[in-house]
Amino acid sequence: MLPAQWVPATARRMKSMSVALGNAGAKIAGHAEPQGDMSQDSLMSTVSELSALRQEVACQGPRSPSPSLPLPGKAVTRLIEEGGIKFTVLRAQEDTIQTVQKPWYIINPDRSRLASIWQIIMGIALLFVALVSPVQVALLKPKLDFLFVLGLVVDVLFFVDFVLQFFTAYPKTTPHGVVLEVRLSSICCRYMKTFLLVDLATMIPFDLLAVTMQVSEFEDLMGLKVIRSLRLMKLMRLMKTSKILQDLEAPVSIPYQKIALVKFMFILLFICHWLACGWAVTLSAVDAYYPRWIDEIQEADAAYGIITTDSPFRIYIAAFYFCSYTITSVGYGDISPQNILERGVCCGILLTAGLSWAYIIGEVGTIVADMTVEGQEFRKTMHHLNKMMRDQRLPRSLQNRVRRYFLQNRSQSLFVARQTLMRRMSPQLQAEVSVMTNMMWLKKVSFFKSFLAFIEMQSRLGEHTAPFEACVADVARCLNLAAFAQQETFHNVQVLYILSKGLVALNSRIGGLGEVWGEDFVLSDTSLIRPVAGYALTYVELLSLAREDFMQVIQRRRITCPELFRLVRRYCVRVAVYRGILAEARRRQIAALNEGLAQQGQSPDARVALPGKVQGMRPPKAKLALLGSLSSLSLPGMIES
Global pTM? Predict the structure, then answer.
């Protein structure tokens, strides 16, 4: 940085010299009139002074001269000197952008391994609070036991988490995207506006005060421990912000509909648990001489010598039984409120249970419908198909064929769904997934096999292979799915076929799953392509790649992926030259045969119609006699050596 008192003088000197240089340059170029006379010596002195001043500015402050400064005697020195002022201004503007560095004491929850472990520990502690704290408030008296010690440990964990919240960065949405807020003041302000009061309330150790001070008044204040249930708000926040669930979902393939069903089952159990604890609290909230809902159960158990009110477990089972049949709208009616407090609490339970049950039923119904959405669409399609065939009065045999085709064609929608998922992936993931899913048939095409070997070699050398894999992804996106019923034929040229389902007859051979033919589809001259007639022995599904689509990919990727263009061109040249030579050889051989027949006094047609021994020459072989018809039925993509 330059001293403040030195900057104005420097700026004035640089401005005056830049004006002088501008006038001189305009005079030399003939674009403008100079302001005043300037000789060549004065121009050179101005340039020298500007160079010295620039060196002086660069060397000011604690930093050493920049390695990008021009070296004397270089050709680019004059260009840098002419644009030096503009360069300096741009650098000054760039340095005004403030970048906040994360202090060492701020915790990044996304990258810290200890923070992830701490989130798991806090999740277990919150689960303890959600299950045990309501039972302690409703049924248990404070005493020194295992649950009391475990509760103190949980309180200590929450106190540590309370302190860590002041030093944990949080994501913040800005015009430039989502960034981590690492400023201590902002973190503290946000925490004080959100969960500070809740955490302070849940850290008050009422049980410890009651046990250590032996004050009986605290027994009447046990209801204050319901504040502990506010910790459940932190449970919801941690489930939203932590990466625990994402870390579990990444390595395991989990059906999300089943996860949602299990989640709502646990929600139902938690609601019943909390309502049961709230219903049990009413027993200790009224005097013993008031009638209570437990009286009838206690009278029934007394006949067997059981005192129900002395067993927290029996009280909890009775309360859970009442809340479970209330929330599911069964309503046996053997347990009912007996006093005004119980009636009020029961009204709250009924309203809460009704809303919760309606929400759970609606969500579960939606999830089950989503799980069978493909089946519903298929049944709707079959309904419209049957109605159409009945209205058109199609023959029964044709109806059976059409219906059988649609029954076997259900997997076509899966291909469309996979293509949609592929488009939603990032380009790099699309490339990697495309290479892995199409590896089987890619290796059966000669130039694709060479291209995959090239990618593997570049990967072993440590080179960047993303553009090559992206080219494979583009080819995979050009694939089209076609389905053919049994006994149908297909013989398009300039199309590469990949059999994905069924059996097909290809001229004189049978093709199964993964069969590839039409490798010479890249040839532009259709006369050099050997057509292959396909016959569907069963219902078949084909993936097809048209030459036009493939060539568009090659042309689009010609700069970033020239290797595939080179391999395809080499293949086309080799196959076209070889097949062109063979075609010319066949033409000349047939011409020679016809000429020999003409010299013997027989027409070529007579020779073909009445084959026999021709004097002076050997009879042609059967393969030569059928060159015009059977020679085109050789195996596709095979190059004779």
Answer: 0.51
